[in-house]
Amino acid sequence: MSGAPSTSSGQPEAVPVTRLLRRLRGVLEADQRFREIWVAGEVVNLVRARSGHIYFTLADAGGALRCAFFRNRNAGQARRLGDGEAVLAYGSLSLYEERGELQLIVDFVQPAGAGAAAAEFERRRARFEQEGLFDPARKRALPRFPRRVGVVTSPQGAVLHDVRTVLARRWPLATLLVQPTAVQGAEAAGEIASAIRAVASPRSASGQPLTPPEVVIVARGGGAAEDLWAFNEEAVVRAIFGCPVPVVSAVGHETDVTLADLVADVRAPTPSAAAELVAPDRDALGARIARDRARLDAALAGALDALRARLREREAALGRALPDCGEGRLRLRAAREVMVRAAEAGIAGRRGGLGRLAERIAALSPSGTLARGYALVSRADGSAVVSAAALSEGERVLLRLRDGARGARVESPP
User: Fold this and answer.
1) Which one of 155, 249, 266, 320 is CB 3.0 to 4.6 Å from 180, fit for a cystine?
2) What are the CA-CA distances from residue 208 to residues 6, 203, 205 (Å)?
């Protein structure tokens, strides 16, 4: 069976060159196998046109491919290409109809030595940087005293345990909102992006909106570069960029750098370090309050001493000016006593207010609450339980008491 075009009578029909080339170009550009691909070769016959376009050929021992690197695509390319350079070129195949030439429309070029994965990382980094996604000016400060902390990570492994342990030790006032997700694999990027959006806008089982976290931690333990690749995907980068609250990225080890790290508001070397960044140290905070109170007491005492000294000086001066005015001296002494008592009362009031504030802080702390016989109840995923109606019979919960924690199972009330 012949594939040649024919008329209705079955006789062959000649196809104009332009029409054939246009068909070939359409077939080529519609085939995903030839779109957004990396091609390795040596740069030869490089020409820089006055228009800003760059034309060259990629060649190896067995063949050659024409390349067009147009001005609107090469403008953001920091490095300068040269003949004889081994490179990786990223782009899509097309057909130049006027000459009937196959060509690669180039978007990005990297030296060949780094490998395709590193070249793709740099291509994406340059693209997002040009869009302003990594701009330091848009980075947001972390909240000082967060009440709700979101965590996007795998439910398995040590990451979630490490984050929960650090938060419980440093700032147990915070409620942990865990959004589990896969952190590697073909589908991981989409799941991570969805998890970031979900934890930033949480909803109850019935679909009612819940109070969102004030900061989100996106975390994953160490692994090979290919295991961390999901955090270089565009979906994850844009989800972090679009998150309405600050994001801390803690992916891999300290030496690993992902695009998620670059777009996040803060990068942490490890998941535990991320938890330390978002959680103030309650012990250090208590010590700071004690130091501030001591300084305030000293300042008030110094001010009172200075006031007493000035009153004594004025009394002595008036006494010298009016040696025979006994009644005036008595009135002055009475006025001084009134002023001293008023100053002492004011200082005592401020001390009392500061003391009551310190007592309220201690009473509101988790340790103070637990010491009075209460318990903190949380689910297995670390989320706090604030309503009996939210628990199901037979559900496992964790009871945190003054001297430790115990597991429990929910039963119907007697």
Assistant:
1) 155
2) 65, 5, 7
* Nearest Cα to Cα of residue 250 among 280, 217, 223, 226: 217
Contact 179, 201 (CB under 8 A): no
Token pair belonging to 334: 């009475």
Q: Structure tokens of 195?
A: 């998890």
Vertex 355: Cα angle to 351 and 356 (nearest 5): 120
Structure tokens, 51: 């228009």
**Predicted TM-score of the model (pTM):** 0.62
What residues does 383 pair with on adjacent strands? none
CA-to-CA separations, 59 to 33, 138, 198, 318, 407, in angstroms, rounded = 20, 43, 48, 104, 67
Q: How many CB atoms sit inside 10 A of residue 19's CB?
A: 11
Give the amino acid at 15.
V
Q: For residue 293, which of 301, 281, 305 has the smallest C-alpha distance?
A: 301
- 38 touches 90 (CB < 8 A): yes
The answer to whether the CB of 93 falls within 8 A of the CB of 106 is: no
The per-residue pLDDT for range 246-299, each reduced to its tens digit, is 999 999 888 889 999 999 999 999 999 999 999 988 877 777 787 888 888 888
Within the chain, what is the greatest distance between any pair of CA atoms?
143
The Cα 290–Cα 324 span in angstroms is 51
Output b/e per residue, 271-283; b: 16+ Cβ within 10 A.
Answer: bbebbbbbbbebe
Size of the chain in residues: 414
DSSP annotation of 143 reads: P
Query: Which DSSP letter does residue 372 get?
Result: T
- Asked if 209 and 169 count as a contact pair (C-beta separation under 8 A), the reply is no
List, for residues 80-95, the tens digit of each pLDDT value: 788 888 888 999 999 8
